[in-house]
Amino acid sequence: TVPTQLLTLNGKQFSIEADPNMPVLWVIRDIIGLTGTKYGCGSGLCGACTIHVDGKPMRGCLTSLKQVTNKQVTTIEGVEAQALKDNWAKHNVPQCGYCQAGQIMSAAALLATTPAPTEQQIDQAMSGNICRCGTYPRIKSAIKATAA
Ligand code: FES
């Protein structure tokens, strides 16, 4: 039998019947049906699947369901980062858009702990999020525009 596990996602509790070792990215996309979080490489290299676990940016593809039991999981659909999202739109950041939810999640986690990041802190926080279209300069502009 498949065990039932409790998952708190964007402030709501879900009772999930799945293998505890299932990547939480699959749970979020395929079981719960929230598709803002993207599957890129599936092996921790691209950042497209970035979610927050207790506010910390994590790879959804490498984080198992059992690792997030009793923790707060947040996705792009639930993250409170309206100013950042507004600046993302204002600076026309996305090109194809595929990596952008992950980019915003990493940026939001940075700004939550470091409201006025230095150039270096931005580079470091964003270094794990790959954009094949090369939107990096606009990503940085949107982050800087949001910074305190
Ligand atoms: Fe998780 Fe690429 S899909 S890091």
From TrEMBL:
Where does the 2Fe-2S ferredoxin-type domain lie?
A: 3-79
- Does Transferase count among this protein's keywords? no
Which InterPro entries does the annotation name? 2Fe-2S-bd, 2Fe-2S-bd_dom_sf, 2Fe-2S_ferredoxin-like_sf, 2Fe-2S_ferredoxin-type, 2Fe2S_fd_BS, Beta-grasp_dom_sf, Diverse_Oxidoreductases
Keywords from the named record = 2Fe-2S, Iron, Iron-sulfur, Metal-binding, Oxidoreductase, Ubiquinone
Q: PROSITE patterns annotated for this entry?
A: 2FE2S_FER_1 (PS00197), 2FE2S_FER_2 (PS51085)
Source superkingdom: Bacteria
- Where are the coiled-coil regions? none
Give the matching Gene3D superfamilies: 3.10.20.30, [2Fe-2S]-binding domain (1.10.150.120)
GO MF annotation list: 2 iron, 2 sulfur cluster binding; metal ion binding; oxidoreductase activity
Q: Which PANTHER family match?
A: BLR6218 PROTEIN (PTHR44379:SF2), OXIDOREDUCTASE WITH IRON-SULFUR SUBUNIT (PTHR44379)
Under what name is this protein listed?
Answer: (2Fe-2S)-binding protein
